[in-house]
Design brief:
The chain has 230 residues and is an all-alpha fold. The protein has helices at 9-12, 26-50, 59-83, 86-112, 116-135, 147-156, 169-194, and strands spanning 139-140, 144-145. Helices cover 60% and strands 2% of the residues. Strands 1-2 form a two-stranded antiparallel sheet.
């Protein structure tokens, strides 16, 4: 099992805005968070390979990547809950899902020749299938995701790793890969929100993206103001 220290990923990616007095909409914040999350997913696969996990450049690679990205989106959504008003949090999370679906689609279709629409739909369906489960677990600012949150992420990998790795993957994800990624993502969220000036609502636009649509996790939504799926 690998215990390599976290890389300097944050230093090598855009994680703050330099025009601090400029207002930003939540979709712009989501774009920065999504790019960092994508890099974290790729870095995690590299570290897992270095730790002798068998993750081949096949559909398995993108299944593993998809599961880890879904985990990190749910982490980012919890960080957004503490930093953004509820409507802006919704835009942030949905925008992040869509941007990562685009990145996954572009890369998997190019490398494996998979149908792009099937990739996009598959990723959003995976997010929607996992979101309410992740929403049932505890999360706090000081400690991040609780044991059950991390265990769920680790167990999700059992179906995508090679059979020889199933005995070890949950522990590797829970104790090393997920906590390191969460630490980086927390810093990114602090940076992009802290350097964004004011947060403004994105202008309303007519929906042109084909379904399915990401559904917001139901965690901490006010009882009298639930967040419905799009």
């Amino acid at each position: 099992m690998s215990e390599k220290p976290a890389s300097n990923l944050l230093r090598r990616t855009k994680s703050r805005f330099f025009a601090k007095d400029k207002a930003r909409d939540p979709a712009t914040l989501a774009s920065v968070a999504a790019f960092t999350t994508w890099r974290l997913g790729l870095q995690t696969i590299k570290r897992m390979r270095d730790a002798d996990f068998e993750i081949e450049a096949t559909p398995q690679y993108f299944d593993f990547l998809s599961e880890f990205l879904v985990f990190l989106i749910n982490v980012a959504d919890r960080f957004a809950f503490a930093r953004l008003p509820l409507p802006e949090r919704r835009v942030f999370t949905v925008s992040m899902v869509r941007r990562l679906a685009e990145l996954l689609t572009e890369n998997e279709s190019r490398l494996l020749g998979t149908d792009p629409e099937a990739i996009r739909r598959g990723f959003i369906d995976r997010f929607n299938a996992r979101a309410d489960d992740y929403a049932s677990f505890e999360f706090d600012e000081a400690n991040g995701p609780d044991f059950a949150f991390l265990r769920y992420a680790g167990h999700a990998m059992l179906g995508v790793v090679a059979e020889r790795d199933r005995a070890w993957v949950t522990d590797q994800v829970m104790t090393i890969e997920a906590p390191d990624a969460v630490t980086t993502l927390r810093r990114v969220m602090d940076n992009v929100v802290g350097t964004a000036g004011s947060i403004i609502a994105a202008p309303e636009e007519e929906e042109t993206t084909p379904g399915p649509f990401p559904e917001m996790p139901q965690v901490d939504a006010p009882v009298d103001d639930p967040i419905p799926p799009e």
